[in-house]
């Protein structure tokens, strides 16, 4: 007998408990255990009903994704569900905790379902680029109704049991009463003749699912499902539940499932699922490395970034001291945080009490001494080395021994910052992305002397404040901003060569990013990139064409959306970019001055010249050990820069299309673009090596 499922006969009821930590994934051992124990209960004349439940805090997290790569998977989950549904004795699912994916499909195949009101269930397979493949798309519409099932399956969002009356036969208010009320329900089923009710026998009312329901749903989904493969197949599977008999619907579901599994989008989304989890596993510390308690946090700077960072800690219930040298700036920062919380309350995301509770955790000060007892301090001041060093010198004097001193720098050398203190082992970079209270990514930047204890504490702290942390090394821009440099540079150069900002932006938007480089520049403020260029003139002096149009725009005060004009024009109160002929003319003048011939540029060239150098920079970063693995770069780009998850991140995208294609294109542009090409399109040695060996970035190990 499989130990992943244990059976207890309680009177005339066989109770089957799944117990496969950590999440009762429906691995082979669980599937075997369910079939063996059900068959044994059916053979026992003293058993009148079978209950399926869990010994863990959740019912089941669904499929064991590690099995997707193959092996002996018999019995498959649909086989298990057939055994459950066709059992001649009633099978009752008692959901003592969440049920997701295959876990919910197990419950749907049972004859009755019992749970508690606040419990959450869902079919999140769409997030892995697939659809529920064990009857979920056929059974859920029969129980929850077509519209509700469609929404749950296509969005992948979980739903509270209290909102799924058609799915559950008994919903208990108090989870503590689930077992007693659940077993009473089972005895009632037995007393009423132990009736078996197959979900597959439920007739769908076709009038509740007219063609326009699906048409409207598709229309409403257009923007958010852009580029994804699975959502449309999810819709088609639910349509099959309405149009076809159950058995044929299952066949159609299976066909659509296999289509999804074979798609590059599913490969990318599953890669990303594992990449996000792998980012937490680093070699810089081990289980025995101690961590420090973070009970109070200091934040220097109450501007947009500092305020956003503070909100993360307040949201997690951690007290924060915000420091500004001027009371006016401090008051303004705290008022903005309150306004953000009040807006969330208006949208129903927070109660007014929660707003007050969070604000109560925030206190302000204009004196460094107020930071004497904090466990972690994060500076979020102007991005200038002299300013950062001054701040860290002051922190070194007032902060207690063992306090972690962190910089939110996005580009500067954390080693140099650490050297301005007497405790470089306590200094680390914590690069939050703006808006810091919304963006999930946190680049944790380890300096040469940062202790393993500080690294481990920072990685674990990120989880507490609901961030996805990726550990990186020190170089200009770390991983994210270092790679965005060639991306922006090539967009600017392509405009000199004859492409328009709207053509470039459309190519990148169609590729899957939320906006193109020119729109992004305008939204962020063109002055930000200008200040970075000013600090690095010696590194770009060899290229007189480097972002010359952007420099001209900034000098004219055209810094983007906030000034009403940048690469585009904007109407007051409207974020929609309007093409500006003046910018195209400016690019033409600069091209003439620099001797650059303008021409028609294909969309393919635009895509390759913007995305491939970004990938090439990623290869250099891997080679230098700034990122530990290519999947870490993918996590940074999906969460920090909006790279489409259905492409898996830039390195997974390169692996998918083949590194030889990227390498050959880099060589082609290096040779075609003369001196400019020889400066900027030299393939990274690692890209060349892997391409020649027919390998992938995923194969590269430090």
From TrEMBL:
Keyword DNA repair among record annotations: no
Subcellular location: Peroxisome
Keyword Lyase attached: yes
Pathway: Lipid metabolism; fatty acid beta-oxidation
InterPro entries: 3-OHacyl-CoA_DH_NAD-bd, 3HC_DH_C, 6-PGluconate_DH-like_C_sf, ClpP/crotonase-like_dom_sf, Enoyl-CoA_hyd/isom_CS, Enoyl-CoA_hydra/iso, NAD(P)-bd_dom_sf
Keywords: Fatty acid metabolism, Isomerase, Lipid degradation, Lipid metabolism, Lyase, Multifunctional enzyme, NAD, Oxidoreductase, Peroxisome
Reaction catalysis annotation: a (3S)-3-hydroxyacyl-CoA + NAD(+) = a 3-oxoacyl-CoA + NADH + H(+)
Domain 3-hydroxyacyl-CoA dehydrogenase C-terminal: 477-570, 606-695
Pfam short name (any one): 3HCDH
Domain named 3-hydroxyacyl-CoA dehydrogenase NAD binding: residues: 296-473
GO BP terms, alphabetized: fatty acid beta-oxidation
GO molecular function, one term: (3S)-3-hydroxyacyl-CoA dehydrogenase (NAD+) activity
Superkingdom of the source species: Bacteria
PROSITE patterns: ENOYL_COA_HYDRATASE (PS00166)
Similarity comment text for this entry: Belongs to the enoyl-CoA hydratase/isomerase family. In the N-terminal section; belongs to the enoyl-CoA hydratase/isomerase family.
Assembly description: Monomer.
Name used for this protein in its record: Fatty acid oxidation complex subunit alpha
Organism: Paraglaciecola mesophila
């Amino acid at each position: 007998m499989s130990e992943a499922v244990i059976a207890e006969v309680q009177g005339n009821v066989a109770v089957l408990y799944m117990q496969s930590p950590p999440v009762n994934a429906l691995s082979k051992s669980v599937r075997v255990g369910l079939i063996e124990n059900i068959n044994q209960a059916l053979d026992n004349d003293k058993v009148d009903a079978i209950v399926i439940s869990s010994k863990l805090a959740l019912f089941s997290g669904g499929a064991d994704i590690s099995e997707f790569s193959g092996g002996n998977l018999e019995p498959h989950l649909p086989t298990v569900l057939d055994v459950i549904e066709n059992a001649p004795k009633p099978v009752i699912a008692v959901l003592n905790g969440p049920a997701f994916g295959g876990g919910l499909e197990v419950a749907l195949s049972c004859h009755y379902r019992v749970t508690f009101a606040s419990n959450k269930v869902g079919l999140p397979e769409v997030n892995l680029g697939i659809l529920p493949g064990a009857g979920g798309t056929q059974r859920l519409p029969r129980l929850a109704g077509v519209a509700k099932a469609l929404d749950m399956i296509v969005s992948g969002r979980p739903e509270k049991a209290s909102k799924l009356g058609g799915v559950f036969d008994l919903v208990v208010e108090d989870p503590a009463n689930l077992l007693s009320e659940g077993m009473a329900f089972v005895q009632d089923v037995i007393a009423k003749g132990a009736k078996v009710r197959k979900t597959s026998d439920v007739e769908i009312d076709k009038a509740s699912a007219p063609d326009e329901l699906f048409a409207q749903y598709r229309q409403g989904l257009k923007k958010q499902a852009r580029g994804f493969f699975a959502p449309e197949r999810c819709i088609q599977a639910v349509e099959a539940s309405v149009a076809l008999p159950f058995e044929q619907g299952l066949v159609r579901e299976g066909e659509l499932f296999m289509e999804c599994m074979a798609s590059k989008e599913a490969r990318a989304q599953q890669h990303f699922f594992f990449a996000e989890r792998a980012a937490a596993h680093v070699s810089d510390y081990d289980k025995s490395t101690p961590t420090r308690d973070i009970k109070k946090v200091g934040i220097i700077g109450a501007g947009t970034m500092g305020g956003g960072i503070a909100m993360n800690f307040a949201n997690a219930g951690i007290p924060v001291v915000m420091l500004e040298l001027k009371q006016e700036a401090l008051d303004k920062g705290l008022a903005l945080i309150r306004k953000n919380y009040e807006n969330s309350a208006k949208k129903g995301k927070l109660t007014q009490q929660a707003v007050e509770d969070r604000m109560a955790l925030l206190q302000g000060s204009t004196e460094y001494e107020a930071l004497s007892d904090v466990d972690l301090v994060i500076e979020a001041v102007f991005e200038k080395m002299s300013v950062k060093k001054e701040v860290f010198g002051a922190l070194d004097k007032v902060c207690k021994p063992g306090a972690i001193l962190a910089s939110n720098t996005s580009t500067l050398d954390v080693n140099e910052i650490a050297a301005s203190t007497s405790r470089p082992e306590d200094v680390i970079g914590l690069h939050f992305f703006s808006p810091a209270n919304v963006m999930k990514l946190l680049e944790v930047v380890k300096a040469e002397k940062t202790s393993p204890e500080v690294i481990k504490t920072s990685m674990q702290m990120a989880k507490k404040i609901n961030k996805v942390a990726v550990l990186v090394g020190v170089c200009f821009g770390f991983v994210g901003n270092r790679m965005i440099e060639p991306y922006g540079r090539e967009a600017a150069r392509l405009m000199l060569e004859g492409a328009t900002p709207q053509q470039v932006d459309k190519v990148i938007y169609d590729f899957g990013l939320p906006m193109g480089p020119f729109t992004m520049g305008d939204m962020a403020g063109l002055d930000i990139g200008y200040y970075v260029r000013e600090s690095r003139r010696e590194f770009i002096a060899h290229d007189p064409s480097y972002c010359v149009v952007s420099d001209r725009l900034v000098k004219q005060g055209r810094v983007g959306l906030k000034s009403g004009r940048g690469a585009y024009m904007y109407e007051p109160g409207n974020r929609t970019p309007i093409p500006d002929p003046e910018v195209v003319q400016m690019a033409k003048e600069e091209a003439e001055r620099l001797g650059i011939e303008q021409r028609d540029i294909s969309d393919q060239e635009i895509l390759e010249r913007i995305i491939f150098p970004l990938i090439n920079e990623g290869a250099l970063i891997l080679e230098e050990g700034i990122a530990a693995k290519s999947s870490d770069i993918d996590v940074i780009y999906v969460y920090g820069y909006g790279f489409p998850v259905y492409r898996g991140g830039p390195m997974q995208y390169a692996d998918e299309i083949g590194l030889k294609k990227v390498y050959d294109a880099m060589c082609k542009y290096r040779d075609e673009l003369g001196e400019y090409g020889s400066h900027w399109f030299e393939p990274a040695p690692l890209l060349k090596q892997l391409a020649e060996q027919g390998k992938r970035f995923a194969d590269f190990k430090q």
